Amino acid sequence: MMTDFFFKLRKASIPVTLTEFLTLLEALHQRVTAHSVEEFYYLARAALIKDERHYDRFDQVFASHFKGLETLFDGLVGANVPLEWLRKLAELTLSEEDQQLIESMGGWEKLMETFAQRMAEQEGRHQGGNKWIGTAGTSPYGAYGYNPEGIRIGQDQSRHRRAVKVWDRREFRNLDDTVELGTRNIKVALRRLRRFAREGAAEELDLDDTIRSTARNAGWLDLKMVPERHNAVKVLLFLDVGGSMDDHVRACEELFSAARSEFKHLEYFYFHNMVYEGLWKDNRRRHTEKIDTLTVLHTFTRDYKLILVGDATMSPYEITYPGGSVEHFNPEAGDVWMSRLLAAWPRAIWLNPQSSNRWSYIPSIQMVRELMSDRMYPLTLEGLEQGIRALQQLR
Amino acid sequence: MTEGRFHGTERYVATDDLMMAVNAAVTLGRPLLVKGEPGTGKTQLAEEVAFALNRPFIQWHIKSTVKAQQGLYEYDAVSRLRDSQLGEGRVHDISNYIVKGKLWEAFTADVQPVLLIDEIDKADIEFPNDLLLELDRMEFYVYETRQTVKAHHRPIIIITSNNEKELPDAFLRRCFFHYIRFPDKETMEQIVRVHYPDLKKRLLSEALEAFFEIREAPGLKKRPSTSELLDWIKLLVAEDIPPEALRGDQRKLIPPLYGALLKNEQDVHLFERLLFMSRRKKD
Ligand SMILES: Nc1ncnc2c1ncn2[C@@H]1O[C@H](COP(=O)(O)OP(=O)(O)O)[C@@H](O)[C@H]1O
Ligand SMILES: [Mg+2]
Q1: Is A274 in contact with A243 (CB distance < 8 Å)?
Q2: A55 contacts in chain B (CB < 8 Å)
Q3: A259 HSE (CA, 13 A, CB side)
Q4: Which residues are registered as beta bridge partners of B118?
Q5: Which of A295, B59, B76, B188 gets the highest tally of CB atoms within 10 A of its CB?
């Protein structure tokens, strides 16, 4: 059951390793806790999860895996656990074959030892291939199929009817980096952007270190260099405003305006749905103060990286037909302008605040994605990171 | 089994999950990594663990220039160079120029100490990896004097991070981890209580109300944290501000003495604008 839990966590893309899993077993062994399922939950979380962004996913896996098993954790105070307890859990959730296998390996103690050894051998590889691990999860009793009434380990059956379980409260939902950017996770997003901004800086002389090393060298000059601190990356930001984007645009603006001081070269422009012949700098005066897209194309050099932020949710006409825009008459189609942009700034990505599992249902998103050669990323921390990585890799 | 366990102190409110993380780390002798926004009590936690478990407290505060080696020891080459120019006799014994670091201090303490490595994310990204070996083996070698420094007792190690940099995986795998979530109202009430046990109930509840309202204001550059709340309450008491003055419905303006909560001018403007807009909506 415990190994099953481990694999479910991995399946939920939480990077738990065997080292950490063993730490948990060891903690149970040393009786850090055995009092209640809450304590077990806290312990497991502290041992297995190393990033608060994974707390929410952990809660969900925990909830589904240990559903109905809460009584097992009650009334264990003072009993000879947890080894005993682990065995009990195993009896309930492992098939007879599994158990025989465990016995044939010399029982639980031996098993944990072997596990530790295997782990030391496999450190860094992280996948299965281990006999024990290989058989886990094949138990005929899933966490769901199990009937808590049948077992009487804990005495107090009513105790497991607590109000809302901690893990069911989903208190860490907004720390998960696969959810949209908002005020809460914006700081982290900003940090990623900063790291991006610092990329590619030249080296400069580190005077202190040079003096120190020279003294150490009994006076022979020993030059030391450090990366220069200021930023080399140039970014053009095109933001979609109006209509369906209103919900999201604040988060994006906030993010990038906060990042502004970090980038030596960051310019931004607004567009609506799709880029056409005109862009604007001040959204309140969008109808009066347009800038020719051509001018922008000629002003910013090829080494700028282009980031478009928009939900790409519109009528396909707005992409493919002259005059397709909802706001004005555009002599040339959106996709014509897009290909001009991409020719001018080949290092380009599109960040989309729409939830990515809806992308495939919206034709215009598919079309824009194709125009971008698939370089569209969700506007989440994870997406931002992937996007930045793509920008750095593109030559 | 309860002996030697951490349950918080009369000065420090520890939630159940935090206690568990501390006790697991102490029992298994692994470092505990604590993250959370500034002002959530990370630094104080380490002090309180030392106090509660009756251990000496050693604090190593990390700055951007700190190198892992400095935690072990430093060889003061410059002094030695100077002494040699002056013809000092002590120059011949290199051990005169070995300066012990915090890890050395912790390794050789008489009783098991609590070692706080504070704000590890301030250092270079290599810093945590550079300490791995010493933390695993609980020993290190001093080349200059050819001696091995071994830990007499495995120190209780608490490491804090404000999340400015990601920490390397190899390092994370060895730690227990706890993220201090920003306290909810009840927890915050307890925290304020341990600092100001005599605070009037009404003032406390109005102050908390106003505080959380400000914290929720969207778009603040620096949201006020526990330390700001504590400072603000201290001022409210000193100035004898009545609880009514903090009431949201009565308040036509930004709360009194808000300077303790909002420290940056843009945030003050933003908050004023938000208040203004919400009032207009109501009228
Ligand atoms: N759980 C708590 N119990 C008591 N005081 C707290 C708690 N959390 C924060 N504080 C108070 O808030 C202030 C900031 O705490 P500190 O440890 O410096 O935070 P951090 O190191 O996380 O920035 C201190 O005055 C501390 O006493
Ligand atoms: Mg601190």
Answers
A1: no
A2: 179
A3: 30
A4: B61
A5: B188
